[in-house]
Each structure stands twice: as C-alpha cells, then as structure tokens.
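During the first year of the project, the team set up a workflow for recording each protein of interest as an amino acid sequence followed immediately by a discrete structure-token representation. This format lets reviewers and collaborators read both layers of information side by side without switching files. As required by the reporting guidelines, we include two representative entries from the current panel. The first entry is reproduced here exactly as it appears in our internal archive.
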Amino acid sequence: MSIACLFTLFVTTYHPLVVDSLIFTIDIEKMEAKEQTVSGTIIDYCIDDFLYVLTGRALYKLDCTFLTIEDHIPLPQRFNYLAVNNAEIILITTNEIVIIDKHNFAFKRGIGIEQGDYRPMTILDRAIPAERANFIYLIVDSGTKSILKIFDLKSGELRRKLTVDKIVSIIFNEETHRFITLDINNRLTTYDMLLKKKKSVGLQFEGVWFDRFQHGYMVYSPHGVFFVNQSGKVIDFQAITFEEKSINDKFILLTKKGIVFLDSLTLRPKGFFHVIQRIKKLLTIQAPHAQYVIMLDTHYRLQIINIASMEIQSITKKKMVAKEAALIAPARTDSLWYFQLGAFANYENAVEMYNNVKNNIPVFIDSADLYRVKFGGFHDKMSAIEIIGNLDGWFLFHEKVEQASTIQFSVDAEKYILEDGIIRKE
C-alpha cells in the first residue's frame, strides 16, 4: 500500500474501508456495512473526490458513499502504485510512469524511468502547492540507501535526485509543505519541496514508523511509543510492544495480550480490550463517533468496540452487486474513443502488429507523430471495452480520425460495423 495511505485513513459514516480485495462503507449509527468487490486483487487505492482502486489489470473509480462503480478501464500491465492530483491519476511501475486523465480515464502520456521499485512519497498530490502540481515525488530503495526523485509530469524530465540513508517511514505535512522522513539511523529529517534538507535531528532509540502529534511526533519503536518534540527530545514514553505496523492505527495498538487504546491528548492508556480472534486491521473513527473503534478480523468479520464501556458489537454486512453506475450519455463532440494497441518509432514494427491483429478487428495505423496501431472510434468507452476482450492497450480520447472504408466484423458472435470512422453494433 502506498506511503501515508493507512496513516490518514479514518472511518466515519459512509467512509470507504479497503482491505485486500474488499471495499466497505460503514454506517456507524445503523451498525451496518456495505461490501463491494472488484475484479482482481486490490494493489493500491486512494480516497479523494472518489475512491480510486488499482487492481492487477484494471483501474476503478467508485462512489465513496454507495460504492457504485463510476468508471473503469482495463490495464495492459501490472502497476505497483497510484497517486492522484487535481486533474490526473498517476500509475507507477518499475520502469514507467503513466498519466491518466482523472475525468474520463483516457491515457495521456507515459514517462520511461530507470528500473526500480518506485513508490510515491505522497499519494494525494492535490495537497502539493500549485506551482509544484506538475511534479511527482518518488522514492526507491537500494541497499542501505533510498533515492528520492522529482519528475516533471509534463516534460518527463528528472528534476531532482537525492541519495540518503534508507528511509523507513515518511509523511508529508500539508500545512508547511514539508516532507519528514525517519531513516535506518534513527534520524528525523525535514525536506522542502525541492528536496533540500531543512532540518535533521537524531533519536536515541530505534524507530519503526512515526506520525505527527501535537507540536512534535509520535515515534513507534519495538520498545514502545515515544512522544518527541521537533528537536528529538523525548517528552513521554509508553512501554507498549505492538504487532506489525499495518494492523495498527495512530492511537490503537494491538499487543500480544490485546488492544491498547491511547488517549489522543495525554498519550496515556485509557483502555484495554482482550481479543481472542486474529486481527487484520484496527481503525479509529472521527467525531462524532470517536468513542468507537472498527476491528476487522482475519475472517473479514467487522466489529465495533466502544472504548468507554469496553463492549463489542458486530456489524451487519450487506454485499453489493458489482455493477456500473447509470452513466449519463456523453455529449456528442468531434472527439471519439480509440483503443491503442501499440506505438512505434519504426513503421515496420507498427505494420507487423497491424497484420497480426487486422484479421480479427479493423485496426489502422495513425502516423500523426509515432506510428500508433489503433482500433476505433467509439462514441462511448464502455462499448469499446465490450469488444476488445483480451487485447492489451490504452484508451485514448481525441479528434475523429477519418477512415474511408466500411467494414463489417464479428466479436463473440456479436456483429459490428465500421462506417464513417465510427464503430457501432449492428
């Protein structure tokens, strides 16, 4: 999961909760949860104006309240992470950054990058200042070092590269527009938006991960939870040893004996709950339901713990049908949808792909810049998804390409016709 995604995830009424391949929205007052599934294992996700979900071979946009699937596209390859800014979705793999239009999921461009297991330094890039909105900040580990990189999403240029001691945890302060990192040498380091070091303080203990707390930081250690000020001085300490990081939330820690609840103001333990089932995730709830904690066990049963009374109550789950939301027919424009199977600098390579595919569907070569093998056009993207089947490629939305021929063809016993450059079902 992307850095900071689970640090900032709080559950309120109708707020999506994503675990493995399941998506829930929880109504605290009714003690009910809607459950939605998507095709394939969920690799990454981000909650913004919609819930954006990345699976092994698809990208989804879901409504955060009703979990209806508002849009989706198949992907030609596996991506490891996603990030979101105001206008775009950025998909990241080991050697490429792909930019998708956030509004209609059309492919915009790709950027080749040096091989590495890159992950975004922040997944919700709309928090980044406007003058840096076209940049993406990536981190990749190499042995005992981490390499930080800034890429320009417009030009594809590598704007900055910085090698530092391996980073184990990182957060982005939206108020100060600063990155704060915790490295393997137990240093907290602050960087500005140009990745210039502004401050570094050493800790006298081992840190696993950290988060902002009051005017300092909560640092989680194998020895317990430390509260340190911005100079690294220990202000408070709770000797609580907890299970793996992915299970816990900021003030809720799963120990070998049970769940410990920390007071968000004093950092003192304010409750303990003994559990016998194996826990998969613990999540806090924002006001006005802050006295509750969501608990998900390894059998995907949802329960709510009342911290004040230490009572537990099961949540009723209602499985949703994974169907598309009712789509409003797009206004007719001079642009159409095209499915691009490949783009080549060499014409012969484009012809080879063209010849391999043309017996099944009427593809063409668009030579506006590169030699692009395309299939289309379509008035709507969903019609194209029905036809392409197992073909790999990207959906593009651009001005109509004139095609003089009229061609009838069949896909899975359905008959289609390409006429006046537009494909429709007969």
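The second entry, processed by the same pipeline in the following quarter, appears below.
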Amino acid sequence: MRLAAITRTGGCFLSFILFTLMPLSGYSSRNTGTYPAGQGRTSMNTLPDKDEPEKFKPYKRTSEQQNLQQTLPSNDEWWQLFKDPMLDTLIDKAVLKNYDVRNAIRKIEMAKAKLRVDRSPYYPTIYFSASYAPEKSSLSADKKNIIERNGTATVNLNWELDVFGRIRKESSSQKEFYLAAQEDYRGVMVSLAAQLSTAYMNLRCAQKQLEVTRKNIESQKQVMELTESKLKVGLASQLDAAQAKSLYLQTKASLPGIESTIAQQINLIGVLLGEHSVAIRDSLQKPRPIPTNPRQAANGIPANLIRQRPDVRSAERTIDGLAEAVGASRADWWPKFLVTGFFGYSSENFEQFTNKENMIWQIAPSIKWTIFSGRNLVESKKSAQLQLDEEINSYNLTLLTALQEVDNALVTYNKSLQQISALNDAYQQSQLTLDLAVEQYRNGLTSYQNVLSSQISLLNYENSLVEARTASLRYLIELYQALGGGWPVSEF
C-alpha cells in the first residue's frame, strides 16, 4: 500500500515535469520576410518549428523607377563601372589595409574559435592524474608508528551524451553567430567601398571646381583689364572698373577654400586606406576627370535584391542563433546522461606499480537531472526568448529601413539625372550669353552690367553643374550601398 502511494506520487510528479516540458508552438527563423512579433515558443528538444510567416510582397513600382532600373549597372563590384583605374586600385588597397576591415576579420576569427569551443563537448574529456599519499598510522598491535605509502596514476574520462540535443543546439547557435560575423565583415567591406568612392568623387569634384574657378578667374581678369583700358580712354566708368576688379578678387578668394577641401579629401582617403596621406598625396593631387554615370542594365529589382544587404543577412543569422539558444535553454530542463571512468594503477610498492594485480579501472554511467534550482531554468529560458523577440523586432525594422533607403536612393538618383540635364542646358546658354555680352561690350554696344551679370551666372551654373554631377554619383553609390552590393559571401 505504501509502495502504491509512492508510485502514485512519483507518477504525478513525473506527469507534471513532462507537462511542463511539452513542445509549444514555434516559428521560423530562416525566411526572407518579416517575423511575427511576440512568437517564439520552441520545443524542449527540437529546433523551433518552421512555420512560414507572411513575407514582404514585392510592391508595384512606378514607371519612373522601372525605367531607371534599365539604366543601372550590375550590383557586383559596382565601382568598376565608373571606369576609373585609380579608384579600383584604391579600393583594392583599402580592402587589405583598412583597420575596420582588420577588426571585422578578427571578430570572425573569435567567433570561429568560440564555435570550436562550443563543439568540444561532443567529445569526451580525457585527462591524466597522479597522486602520492604517505600516511602515518599507529594502529598496529605493538603500537609502533607505521608509515604507509600509496601511489595512484590514472587516465580519466568524462563524457556527456547529447541525448536531448543541448550541446548540438549550443553549437548550432554559435555557428549562426559565426555566420553573422561573416555578414558583418561583408557589411564593413560594403561601407568601406561606399565611403572611399564618395571621398574619391568629392576629391575629383573639388579639383574640377578648382579648374573651373581658375578658368573663370582668367576670364574675369581679361574683362577687368578691358574695363580698365576703356576707363583710360573715357569709355567706361570707375564704377564699372571697380565692379570688374571686385568680382575678380572675390572669385580669386574662393581658391583657398577649394584647395582646403582637396587636402581634406586626400587625408580622408588616407585614413580609409590605413596609411598616412603623405604616401598618396602626389598621386591624388593630379586632377582627373569626374567619372561619368554608367549606363548598363540592372539585375533584378530592389525588392529581390534586398536580402543581399549584409545587415539583413546578419540579422537573419542572429535570429537563427538565438532560436537555437532558446532550444538549448529548454534542453537544460531534461536530464543529462554522463559516462565517467578511469584506468590506471594503484600500489604501495612502486617497484611493482605496473603489475597486473595493481591495475584499477571503472566505467560508471550516470544521470544528472536538476529538480529544483530556484527560478534559474525558467528565467534562463525567458531571457533567451526575450532576446529572440527583440531581435525579430530589429529584423523587421531593418527590412523596412532597407526598403526605404533603396527607394529613396532610386528616386534621388533619378531626379539628379534630370537636374544634370537641365543644368547642362543652362550652362551652355550662360556661356553663349557671356560670349555675346563680352563681344558687344568690347564693341561698345552694351553696358558692363550685362557682362557682370553673365559672368556671375556662368560661374554659378558651372559650379552647380560640377556639384550636380558629383552628387549624382554619390546618390548612385548610396543606392549600391543600400542594396548591399560589392562582395559575395565567402567562408572563412
């Protein structure tokens, strides 16, 4: 009767334990769409169930965006489409020497080392131990002190059998974090290419502005000398001469600011290359043309390319890793099956220490099941689940932000092309206007005010055109950065 009561009590307790550990509803951690917020219940001994949540649906794009997609170049190593060998060389050097890239590689190596650590429990732990214990005893019949000497040397083994998948889940979790570190490295590379390309475009823009300014200074100097010669013969007023000289000096005063911008961009490029700018200053100070906007067919549409972004891929890997961590925390609720043992020798006579009769060994399977540990197991699982839910929310936000950045970059780049076309027409007309005004002024057919106005307009339009061309290239760089283009994923 007592045995039956104990059996009933034990059965109730076991039923309670099994009910607590029953698998609950799960969700997917690997997909291309959003994750439902608040989900994340996982089973005790399996990976979270692979439910398929609602994905982002490709949305209908405007005709402007569809037309623009036909003009965009390929997404792989997009900087080569600027057809600037110096830019290609700079990016190749930066990939090898940039300190952010070096740190990203170190993080991959650390994650890989941690992965190997987490995989080590798959194998038994084997170690050697030895002891020597002299012991004094006075329990002999003649009450004489006796010193007993006993030596032991054994090879020991500890091995946890991964019956419920705890070790496997911890290893799988760290593997996903390792893959996420690779995506973070790729993100650093994409960001580096974008930063370096932008700095390079800004440098060429400043050099072109310097060329434009010097050309306008020379033109304004000629008009100033013409005005002064007219003043000497009474065909121009002192006001005309003063205004001509004022415009000349004002334009000349803008040179130091442009030269300062050139120096700053060279210094920035040096930092991105991981070296002092002195080593590259001579090669970069030589002016080169601003690269033209490439015109090649695009591959796919942003809705399909969005998963190329390193931050999106890293977030997916992190979610997978945290989902595995939730499973590992639940596996802690199950018992652990262990195998321990040793083999060796133990003897009081060291001369006969390795004799067969002194051999000792043991193999002892055991089970360890935590019945009560406060709220350690419950709160550990809860903490892992909350981390997973937080990462899912961050992932959804990352997707929305990525779509926003791609759409913004597409629209901005499209409008910049229209702006370049309009400014180029205005610049051509302004140049024609100035030529006519100077010719008429030289022949005494118009006043200096028309020349002055035309000079100011030409300088403004020419600088605006240079800035618009550079801005358009920057917007294109931002588009490729938003798409995450530049480097394929590679295993380390």
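For the second entry, the following points were noted during internal review. The longest helix spans residues 166-232. The domain at 23-123+165-334+375-483 is CATH 1.20.1600.10 (Outer membrane efflux proteins (OEP)). Both points are flagged for discussion at the upcoming steering committee meeting.
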